[in-house]
Amino acid sequence: xxxxxxxxxxxxxxxxxxxxxxxxxxxxxxxxxxxxxxxxxxxxxxxxxxxxxxxxxxxxxxxxxxxxxxxxxxxxxxxxxxxxxxxxxxxxxxxxxxxxxxxxxxxxxxxxxxxxxxxxxxxxxxxxxxxxxxxxxxxxxxxxxxxxxxxxxxxxxxxxxxxxxxxxxxxxxxxxxxxxxxxxxxxxxxxxxxxxxxxxxxxxxxxxxxxxxxxxxxxxxxxxxxxxxxxxxxxxxxxxxxxxxxxxxxxxxxxxxxxxxxxxxxxxxxxxxxxxxxxxxxxxxxxxxxxxxxxxxxxxxxxxxxxxxxxxxxxxxxxxxxxxxxxxxxxxxxxxxxxxxxxxxxxxxxxxxxxxxxxxxxxxxxxxxxxxx
Length: 373
Ligand SMILES: Nc1ncnc2c1ncn2[C@@H]1O[C@H](COP(=O)(O)OP(=O)(O)OP(=O)(O)O)[C@@H](O)[C@H]1O
Prior knowledge:
Layout (H helix, E strand, L loop, with lengths): L7 H5 L5 H13 L6 E4 L6 H10 L8 E5 L5 H9 L16 H4 L4 E5 L6 H13 L1 E2 L8 E2 L3 E6 L3 H7 L4 H7 L2 E4 L10 H10 L9 H7 L7 H15 L12 H4 L21 H19 L4 H8 L3 H11 L3 H11 L20 H13 L6
Parallel strand pairs: 1-6, 1-7, 2-3, 3-6
Antiparallel strand pairs: 4-5
Adenosine-5'-triphosphate binds next to helix 3, helix 9 and helix 11.
């Protein structure tokens, strides 16, 4: 890419959408400094990857990167986990224990799910941020903190502040720079790039057919990139390269959890170039438009026909700039009897580029044995 260096950040964080390019630009800007960074984004969207990229791009890269999931540690243990304790500090503290802050000396400490940190620990953390030192639980000695703190959260921290479960003064200290990761659903064009990059980290990755890749780009990905990775790992397990490419008919069983997968495989034209995302968007828009027309503009019915959740359908309408009026209008002049044949998840069989695919699919369905999954 002409305007972006092909550096370690690019290697770590795949995707070419404007949103992800902006995230990479932010990483490059903040990495060399010591400023605290707050990374927000839905679960599995890559917050830890961003934190690691910041660490890798800093002059602390040769020092430890320590990640703590604050939501996974029982509240009565979290302070000792973070700050360590002296021998005899409490019942069961038989030895001095070094906490995560000390382990991260000179390096980077990622406090993941910071919104779940109990208020008492938040007070201690604020003190560390302000004074650059802390004491172990039950100890008097001040221990200098030489690391950098990065916090991450999938929850709405300003709301937690309003609710009184998160301290606003801590938020101001942490959020010197804020990096926000979009959900995968908001950057579907990144899917081919992500598939390529994630596949490199998988032993004997499966090969995906173009139509399978197109279908992946239509899934809602509630588990974001983590979910995509799981699908690829599962595909490698059940469809090793010797078995031929993973095709659309394999995907419903690979995409989980049950119910989040689109129903029957959509018919999409195979593509060879990087016009993939544009083509997918155009076909999706037309499919939605057809459904709206057949549902006389009733969004809930159109959503049901396409197998898309109603809220997602509305969001997609907004993204495609599709209005109910636009969808219904041609119906009054131009309704075709053949449309009644359309099954919910299909593109109109009248579409010229779809006709051969439809014929091919019908032939395939007639001869292909049931999927083993
Ligand atoms: N842009 C990306 N490029 C390559 N891999 C990615 C990218 N984003 C996420 N991943 C991969 O997706 C998985 C989940 O990422 P990560 O653990 O960073 O998400 P997270 O937002 O920190 O999740 P959680 O909210 O559960 O803590 C990891 O396997 C990670 O390597």
